[in-house]
Design a protein that fits this description.
This protein has 486 residues and is mainly alpha-helical. It has 19 helices and no strands. The chain has a single domain, classed as Amino acid/polyamine transporter I (Up-down Bundle), CATH 1.20.1740. Keywords: Membrane, Transmembrane, Transmembrane helix.
Length: 486
């Protein structure tokens, strides 16, 4: 077993701080959010979408306390699965299943179907070609697999160079639009009447998805230099940069569209392109198109990195996945078998949902599952942090108690409004899509709670030795004698 651990390991010290920052930012995919997820926010929050995005950013900032604190204690590619397991082993499988909802289903849906939907709807001539979106989807899936297969440094170097250009473009272009709006600028979009608040909360659910991925740098903990230092720094810098890249566009696009006509925003194909073209001309239109396309491609690389490493960690522990998946390429040190798992499940689910509901609605279905999965993922990790800090006699009331508890409560509130919205929409506007979205929401709750905890109990009784290993691996403990290399 010892020999196997040394043979199958990820490439330590392969990447640095900037790579870590843009692993997270690429997974957030700011330009892709502007193209697709902001549409979901505006569909509910309307004129107050910038407020929904701002609140979601602050809530996600609270959620980042847990990976920030844990990153100083453990360097494990399993991410939240590993972190929650350190608090209580019974949380390991529910957290892993939450990850499958968020990253293995929702992630490919956003990257693969998001890219396909964007170009599918961009021109009537493209839309008229039957099933052309499948070609787009296949290209993105293959691209993500190949670049991630080449190695963590290769994939994240690409993410760094293109990501910094994307963040600067979105922020500066939005500022230019705001200046061009002149007297149309208003603070009323940040002060909704009380009766609108439930809709703002629903819009915030999609806005929370805008920031999903901020903490994914934790999954490269075994490959980044000085992980206990650079993971936390990556989270902070990524948080600030994504706020710049998303809050400003949310305001610029909604006010630029026209608050009186905001109801038509969500039903328009690619409204972001329309606004950028209107205020910044053909150059703005073309540049946003390029950055959106690249954003989806960068995202799918980041997503494949995340899923493959979490699955690699779980298979190393012997939890849920067979040991066959515990393998890295002899030369590139990439977890190639779990990359194959990502490709099969991720592309398969997006293809099926896209064929049944169409690429846009198919993505919406899987992103509904993803949105609920990410809430559970953070709640379980928050609980794990509080318990683990108590166990280690390192408990700080604010960092390990107040912040995790408050952020978990906020997660429950968002979950409540999410389900309330899905139920009310299915009742008031009965349709196959709305019933499917409600079913997706119910599934997303039962998968980690009913199935996850049942499997945890089973493992505790039948395979306690496997569950005992969950999350315990720490790359820095293995390399402790070589610490001078840092």
């Amino acid at each position: 077993m010892k020999k196997q651990i040394q043979e199958y390991k990820l490439k330590h010290n392969a990447v640095g701080l900037m790579h870590g920052i843009f692993q997270s930012i690429s997974h957030v995919s700011p330009a892709g959010d502007v193209a697709i997820l902001l549409t979901g926010t505006v569909a509910y929050a309307g004129a107050y979408s910038a407020l929904a995005v701002l609140i979601a950013w602050l809530i996600y900032g609270m959620w980042m306390n847990t990976p920030y604190q844990f990153s100083k204690l453990r360097s494990n590619a399993g991410g939240y699965y590993a972190y929650a397991s350190l608090g209580s082993k019974i949380l390991s499988i529910p957290t892993f299943l939450s990850y499958t909802e968020n990253e293995m289903l929702g992630g490919p849906a956003f990257g693969i179907l998001g890219f396909a939907s964007f170009f599918y709807l961009i021109s009537p001539s493209i839309t008229a070609i039957p099933y052309i979106w499948i070609a787009f989807a296949s290209f993105v899936a293959a691209y993500g697999f190949i670049i991630s297969y080449l190695g963590i440094k290769e994939s994240l170097s690409y993410a760094f160079y293109t990501g910094i250009a994307e963040v600067l473009f979105l922020g500066l272009a939005s500022i230019a639009i705001i200046f061009r709006l002149g007297s149309l600028n208003t603070f009323t979009v940040f002060s909704p009447p009380t009766y609108i608040l439930p809709l703002v909360f629903l819009g915030m659910v999609f806005s929370i998805l805008d920031f999903t991925g901020l903490g994914t740098v934790i999954t490269v903990s075994e490959e980044i230099k000085e992980p206990k230092k650079n993971i936390g720094r990556s989270i902070i810098y990524a948080f600030l940069l994504t706020g710049f890249a998303l809050i400003l566009p949310a305001y610029a696009l909604t006010v630029g569209w026209g608050l009186g006509n905001i109801s038509t925003f969500a039903t328009s194909p690619d409204p972001g392109l329309i606004i950028f073209g209107k205020y910044l001309g053909i150059i703005g239109f073309i540049l946003l198109t390029i950055f959106v396309a690249n954003s989806y491609l960068s995202f799918i690389i980041a997503n494949s990195n995340v899923v493959s490493r979490i699955a690699f960690s779980a298979s190393r522990d012997g939890v849920l996945l067979p040991k066959w998946f515990y393998y890295t390429h002899p030369k590139r040190k990439t977890p190639v078998r779990t990359l194959m798992l990502w490709l099969g499940v991720g592309f398969g689910s997006t293809l099926i949902s896209g064929l049944v509901l169409g690429p846009f609605n198919g993505a919406l279905l899987l992103l509904t599952i993803s949105g609920i999965g990410v809430i559970f993922e953070h709640i379980f990790a928050n609980i794990g942090l509080t318990i683990f800090a108590k166990k280690q006699d390192q408990f700080d009331v604010f960092k390990h108690g107040f912040v995790p508890i408050v952020s978990s409560i906020l997660g429950v509130v968002v979950l409540y409004y999410s389900m309330q919205g899905l139920i009310s929409t299915a009742i008031s506007s009965p349709s196959l899509l709305n019933y499917a979205l409600l079913g997706a929401g119910i599934f997303a709750i039962l998968w980690p709670l009913a199935v996850g905890f049942s499997l945890s109990v089973y493992y505790m009784k039948k395979h306690p030795e496997k569950l005992a290993k969950a999350g315990e691996y720490d790359i820095e403990m293995e390399l402790k004698p070589q610490s001078k290399e840092y």
